[in-house]
Amino acid sequence: MALGWQMLERDRGGSMSIGAGQERRQDAGLGLARPSAGIAVDLRLYGILDTGVLGDDAAALAALAAEAVAGGATLLQYRDKDLTDARAALARIRAIHAAVNGRAPLLVNDRVDLALAAGVEGVHLGQSDLHPEEARRLLGPRAIIGLTVKTGAQADELYRLPIDYACIGGVFATASKDNPDPPVGLDGLQRIVFRARLARGQALPLGAIAGIDASNAASVIRAGADGVALIGALFKGGATEAKARDLRARVDEALGQRGNAGMR
Ligand SMILES: Cc1ncc(COP(=O)(O)OP(=O)(O)O)c(N)n1
Ligand SMILES: Cc1ncsc1CCOP(=O)(O)O
Ligand SMILES: [Mg+2]
């Protein structure tokens, strides 16, 4: 059975750890990341707290985070693409982390230094951010590292990267990101999932991102994703807890019809 987030334990240093025997290892010589040795990440409902979309008020972001986890969010990310004041960003990340209080892991987008400084559970990296090998070296074996995958060729590379999940997209058009790549659609998602599974087997959790909402979340799961990452449909316009509950139910139902519970 896959490890659930609830089964992770806090080590004495205060960072998240997993039980004995679950340490990440590298295959000597080949440089292959062993999928089975990584941390199990629950991608079912991944909420991204984007300061560009939601504003940069720390208390408001923390309240949104708390609502999301109360409604069933399984993973959160702090995304700040206008990071001119690192100290203020750190204060926001700490406020969000405190509000979540261990109920879901919190990752920082792009910035390994801020993730380390804030003592959160990991980072999300894109194809031109710090390389996952470098991030792993800095963050250690117990951090969660996620990677954006936009193409089949990028999916082919997953076999050798020390990451804990990949997120595929953009699937649909999004209003939350400047200059997004053209959407790959459900067909493109399915093709990239196929190649990611060839590269890394069934063990690597695969999320999907961009333009996902209550109307299309189930179709994204049916196309092969293990969960959905969202900004607008979860955090814009209020009622985040209720939206999270509804989205989580749709994802869980689609996963149930597919014959697994979303944890890998
Ligand atoms: C869960 C998740 N998936 C994809 C992204 C996009 O990452 P990236 O391609 O590095 O683009 P930016 O978000 O940094 O603009 C993400 N942040 N989170
Ligand atoms: C960060 C990111 N990366 C690709 S699309 C996107 C934004 C997704 O936001 P939304 O869920 O509102 O479409
Ligand atoms: Mg990035």
Automatic annotation (TrEMBL):
Mg(2+) binds at D110, D129. Its EC number is 2.5.1.3. It comes from the Bacteria. Belongs to the thiamine-phosphate synthase family. This is Thiamine-phosphate synthase. Its cofactor is Mg(2+). Coiled coil: none annotated. PANTHER family: THIAMINE-PHOSPHATE PYROPHOSPHORYLASE, THIAMINE-PHOSPHATE SYNTHASE. Residues 46-234 form the Thiamine phosphate synthase/TenI domain. Pathway: Cofactor biosynthesis; thiamine diphosphate biosynthesis; thiamine phosphate from 4-amino-2-methyl-5-diphosphomethylpyrimidine and 4-methyl-5-(2-phosphoethyl)-thiazole: step 1/1. Binds 1 Mg(2+) ion per subunit. It comes from Methylorubrum aminovorans. Keywords: Magnesium, Metal-binding, Thiamine biosynthesis, Transferase. The keyword Magnesium applies. It catalyses: 4-methyl-5-(2-phosphooxyethyl)-thiazole + 4-amino-2-methyl-5-(diphosphooxymethyl)pyrimidine + H(+) = thiamine phosphate + diphosphate; 2-(2-carboxy-4-methylthiazol-5-yl)ethyl phosphate + 4-amino-2-methyl-5-(diphosphooxymethyl)pyrimidine + 2 H(+) = thiamine phosphate + CO2 + diphosphate; 2-[(2R,5Z)-2-carboxy-4-methylthiazol-5(2H)-ylidene]ethyl phosphate + 4-amino-2-methyl-5-(diphosphooxymethyl)pyrimidine + 2 H(+) = thiamine phosphate + CO2 + diphosphate. 4-amino-2-methyl-5-(diphosphooxymethyl)pyrimidine binds at Q77, Y78, R79, D80, K81, N109, T148, K177. 2-[(2R,5Z)-2-carboxy-4-methylthiazol-5(2H)-ylidene]ethyl phosphate binds at T174, A175, S176, G211. Condenses 4-methyl-5-(beta-hydroxyethyl)thiazole monophosphate (THZ-P) and 2-methyl-4-amino-5-hydroxymethyl pyrimidine pyrophosphate (HMP-PP) to form thiamine monophosphate (TMP).
